[in-house]
């Protein structure tokens, strides 16, 4: 297995697409079994583009439904257990003798002996959310032992198992590209569009990227692709982006691509390969992609073949290619571009076209605004507020326009646009001198979308500056809002009801602005465990039954981020 994989990497490397060499420590299918008892069918793969991060595991479809067994993929011990309403939900981490760790997320439940211990810890901490690190001797596991049940907890869009293997440095491995698991895949990546950006110098000396050309691409059965415009034009220099997606055999789920290499006149100009991911740098996905175009794409991903100045991703090889993907057109001679895009199963698509010298862009297309250097940042002072962008927040230097206005009768400030992401959070401080003292604790910052709809950024009153302050990792339009409305609770059962055997107490909980942050349940005056699922907006409690049904006094209290509280009192029999 390992020898064959090394040969495959050698062959791929001949074409310049692989940035690492397999080693004897690349543990594969001979070491790991499947975490499920049925054929692995993917709903997502490693490196798929998600909101503000790369997907770090494989998502295995629930072919046998919620509650199907989950197995340890190798010998080891459970080193970490998490329960959370978001993220991986119910999750187990198993550390193996080889130094690697397998991760099992969105579980419906743990194996009974694990679940009992976790429940004890939740009651001891009086918290549904826990992050536990049991001693290595508490939960040893053997390869093939059932450790959990497949589910849909946390930030899951449907029943599946999120599964990872992290190497000894804690980096998630690309399990399909590494050959640990195989799925049927003879489908090459699909390229649907090529975008050409021109790099122009503003009057302040800050280079700006302006979209010059967008051309659709036609796929061919031989694995090649042809853009509608086979000759693209630049004024002097620029870079490219590719709208691309991948599929597995017979499946409609979209996947992320594994590698891309762009050659200009036969010489490497840009490349990446997603062999390992690093949690410390996964947020740099927002400069890996064409952020504004990617936001508007529906199922595809728009990837930049450009290495921005502030990009710490380790996907470009030990020796980053000089030029960072920039294509220069010095004279009338066209530059020949050949780009090969590969998926994690080795299928590839090759796109060929040329870039030639064209007319310079008119000055009217050059963005306007204050030059902000990415390593230095800038603080914008406005009549009704302040926006501080720290150094190393931007991925590249920008021209950023700011201002203030009134929208739907609400004073707003705007800085740049929501198409500008940030690696480090900016601070928004808005004046609110006319805010009554009684409402200051209820104030927060909101951002407004293109239709003027508000969504919470958070923050609150700062008595030192007498402003409402919050942190944000995206620029755009901001305003001060006040949240005085308590959450709404709707019980499944009316007070006085008898809860049938096997059923749970459930409430639908919603909040209009700042969001639910605290929830507490008591039964007969004692704290009880209460789960919270934000995606279904459901609070749930499993009653502890006795041989003889009895009436119980139930009190549920829910609070939002601004301290608005709703309490429901009821009596139920179980």
UniProtKB/TrEMBL annotation:
InterPro entries: Cell_wall_metabolism_enzyme, Dup_hybrid_motif, M23ase_b-sheet_dom. GO terms for molecular function: metalloendopeptidase activity. Residues 54-113 form the M23ase beta-sheet core domain. Coiled coil: none annotated. PANTHER family: MUREIN HYDROLASE ACTIVATOR ENVC, PEPTIDASE-RELATED. This is M23 family metallopeptidase. It comes from Candidatus Rikenella faecigallinarum.
């Amino acid at each position: 297995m390992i020898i064959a994989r090394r040969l495959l990497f050698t062959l791929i490397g001949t074409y310049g697409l692989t940035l690492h060499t397999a080693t004897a420590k690349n543990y594969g299918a001979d070491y790991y079994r499947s975490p499920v008892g049925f054929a692995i069918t993917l709903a997502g793969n490693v490196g798929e583009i998600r909101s503000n991060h790369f997907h770090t595991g494989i998502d295995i479809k629930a072919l046998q439904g919620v509650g199907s067994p989950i197995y340890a993929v190798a010998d080891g011990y459970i080193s970490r257990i998490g329960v959370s309403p978001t993220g991986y939900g119910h999750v187990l981490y198993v550390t193996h003798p080889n130094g690697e760790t397998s991760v099992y997320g969105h579980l419906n439940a743990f194996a009974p002996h694990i679940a009992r211990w976790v429940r004890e810890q939740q009651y001891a901490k009086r918290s549904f959310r826990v992050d536990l690190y049991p001693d290595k001797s508490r939960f040893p596991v053997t390869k093939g032992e059932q450790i959990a049940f497949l589910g849909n907890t946390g930030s899951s869009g449907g029943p599946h198992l999120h599964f990872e293997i992290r190497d000894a440095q804690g980096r998630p491995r690309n399990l399909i590209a590494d050959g640990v698991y195989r799925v049927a895949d003879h489908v090459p990546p699909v390229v649907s569009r090529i975008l050409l950006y021109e790099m122009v110098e503003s009057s302040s000396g800050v280079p700006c990227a302006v979209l010059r050309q967008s051309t659709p691409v036609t796929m061919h059965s031989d694995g090649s692709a042809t853009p509608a415009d086979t000759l693209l034009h630049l004024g002097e220099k620029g870079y490219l982006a590719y709208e691309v997606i991948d599929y597995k055999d017979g499946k409609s789920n979209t996947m992320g691509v594994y590698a891309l290499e762009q050659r200009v006149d036969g010489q490497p100009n840009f490349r990446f390969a997603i062999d390992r991911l690093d949690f410390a740098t996964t947020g740099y996905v927002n400069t890996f992609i064409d952020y504004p175009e990617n936001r508007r794409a529906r199922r595809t991903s728009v990837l930049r073949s450009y290495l921005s100045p502030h990009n710490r991703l380790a996907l470009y090889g030990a020796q980053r290619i000089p030029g960072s993907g920039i294509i220069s057109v010095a004279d009338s001679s066209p530059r020949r571009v050949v780009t090969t895009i590969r998926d994690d199963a080795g299928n590839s698509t090759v796109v060929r076209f040329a870039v030639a010298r064209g007319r310079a862009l008119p000055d009217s297309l050059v963005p306007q605004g204050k030059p902000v250097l990415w390593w230095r940042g800038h603080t914008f002072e406005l009549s009704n507020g302040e926006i501080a962008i720290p150094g190393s927040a931007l991925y590249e230097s920008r021209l950023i326009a700011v201002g203030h206005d009134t929208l739907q009768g609400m004073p707003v400030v705007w800085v740049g646009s929501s198409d500008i992401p940030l690696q480090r959070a900016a601070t928004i401080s808005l004046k609110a001198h006319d805010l009554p003292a009684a409402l200051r604790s209820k104030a927060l910052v909101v951002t407004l979308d293109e239709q003027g709809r508000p969504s919470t950024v958070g923050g609150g009153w700062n008595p030192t500056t007498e402003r409402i302050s919050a942190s944000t990792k995206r620029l755009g339009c901001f305003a001060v809002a006040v949240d005085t409305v308590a959450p709404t609770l709707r019980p499944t059962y009316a007070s006085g009801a008898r809860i049938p055997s096997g059923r749970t107490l459930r409430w639908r909980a919603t909040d209009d602005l700042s969001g639910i942050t605290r929830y507490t349940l008591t039964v007969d005056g004692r704290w009880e465990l209460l789960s919270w699922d934000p995606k279904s907006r459901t609070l749930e409690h499993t009653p502890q039954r006795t041989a003889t049904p009895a009436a119980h006094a139930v009190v549920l209290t829910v609070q939002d981020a601004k301290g608005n509280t709703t309490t429901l009192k009821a009596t139920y029999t179980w």
